[in-house]
Amino acid sequence: MRKAAFSVCLFFLLTALAVAQTKISGTVKCGKNSIEQIVPVGDQPGHSFGVTQGSCTWTKAWKIEGVAAKEGMGTSRVEANGDVAHNNGVYVDTMENGDKAIYHFQFTATTKNGQTQISGHKWQLMEGTGKLKGVKGQGTCKATATPDGGAMYECAGEYMAAK
Fold this sequence. Notes:
Elements: H1 2-20, E1 21-30, E2 35-40, E3 47-60, E4 63-64, E5 67-81, E6 84-95, E7 100-112, E8 115-128, E9 136-145, E10 151-160
Antiparallel strand pairs: 1-3, 1-10, 2-3, 3-5, 4-5, 5-6, 6-7, 7-8, 8-9, 9-10
């Protein structure tokens, strides 16, 4: 009897958690970084550390709690070794009503024959302000480098509203 009661409780808990998650998707265009500070490490050719920052605008905005994303600023730490760069950072999204959504992200950029490929792009929605206070989420992006030195990101994931 205890096993059956536990199973029923677990079922309802998992169902409630699944229902609480809202799927989102959108496309954001980021231009060439406005700030790039890169410092060679000196241990081997092509090994460097850096900080970059650039702005982005949503071309197909997703909505969180009914509020559309508008534009943002991404700041990242970069470790490059030859043609491979590992990036992780923070993206601060300004929503159409002025609220902020703060994401942590990571990805790898590989350059081959002058073409940049971005892979493994993951994001986590860590916090928000105003209507987004307490919202959490996660997802991935598929990125395509643009000729102007920026990138187009097709992102998808899910978020959970504050309790």
